[in-house]
Amino acid sequence: MTVELEKRPAPPITGHRRRRAVLAFTVAAVVLVALALASAAIGQVPTTPAEVAGSVAHRIGLDWGPVPAHPAGEVTLWEVRFPRVILAILVGAALATAGALLQGVFANPLAEPGVIGVSSGAAVGAGTVIVFGGAFVAAWSVAAAAFAAGLFTTALVYVLSRSGGRTEVVTLVLTGVAVNAFAGGLIAFLLFVASPAARDQIVFWQLGSLNGATWDAVTVVAVLTVAGTAAAILVAPRLDLLALGESAARHLGVDVERLRRTVIVIVAVLTTAGVAFTGIILFVGLIVPHVVRMIVGPGHRALIPVSAVLGAVVLLGADVAARSLVDNADLPLGMLTSLIGAPFFFWLLRRTRARAGGWA
């Protein structure tokens, strides 16, 4: 028995639904700003949220608020903390948007980039460049390798999971499990042949962390995230038509297979934005779009932007927790998202199966 989203058109974003979407977006944006100020204030160099806001205001030419009193405060904020905060926002938005796209195009609430193998596949690509690239490895070359491997992995899972012209959710998840296992073997091989420095970088990816955040990394991720999110918003109306079913969507002028190929490319871009520099962070793309769908409805024109902002909130909040739960320690970010996301995934599976008629 498969679990699929109900085949029905997404209602227009008007009236009450529009107000809920605007309210959800606004609340998430306010929480995101508050979290960003709190996150930038956390660290060994004492800084307050007011000093963080004042530093930003002075940088943009506004004579408002206090600046960090500590002699190293300004350097710490702009060279260490702000890149980390911005990278968390970008990666969270990218993963949540990718999850919303996959859930829409596959018409099921269980699709997520990590579940279908794209994250681990992209990590293999980036890890290969780090191990065999020598001293000439640059941020763009790592991102390009992760993009190519992530795109190939996503396309492979999509092709292998199709049967009789359809993509069944059970086949999709099982194919993703197999691809994840194979990618895990490749990562183990890379760890075996890698130098100590390269091995540390691969392990860092597997754990998931924002410790390596730099402005160079932010630049790469920002380009991929902005491009991918913009493309996701452009295909949102066609995803709403696809919710009617493939036959109805074709009659309304949607090239279903072309749309799915386009979404695969967008998902690869967005997922790569996270994997290339922060490691494998699971379940953000599963949890966030599903929660947003329950709040604002299934219409992708609202679902995608709200998911992007809430995804940024979730990952930035997880990073704040990673640096705050244990004194003088930075917990692995991927560990935290998995500890929260795995139980949610199980609850979601039970909920969707129960709504579909119970366990089979």
Beta strand %: under 5%
Work out the helix count.
13
Poorly predicted sequence stretches spanning 5 or more consecutive residues: 1-9
Strand order of the largest sheet: 1-2
Description:
- It is a single chain.
- The protein has 360 residues and is mainly alpha-helical.
- Helices cover 73% and strands 1% of the residues.
- It has 13 helices and two strands; from the N terminus they run αααααββαααααααα.
- It has helices at residues 15-41, 49-59, 73-105, 118-132, 139-160, 169-193, 196-207, 215-242, 246-251, 256-278, 284-296, 300-324, 333-355, and strands at 162-163, 166-167.
- It has a two-stranded antiparallel ribbon.
- The longest helix has 33 residues, at 73-105.
Please give the structural blueprint:
Elements: H1 15-41, H2 49-59, H3 73-105, H4 118-132, H5 139-160, E1 162-163, E2 166-167, H6 169-193, H7 196-207, H8 215-242, H9 246-251, H10 256-278, H11 284-296, H12 300-324, H13 333-355
Antiparallel strand pairs: 1-2
Helix pairs in contact: 1-2, 1-3, 1-12, 3-8, 3-10, 3-11, 3-12, 4-5, 4-6, 4-7, 4-10, 5-6, 5-10, 6-7, 8-10, 8-12, 11-12
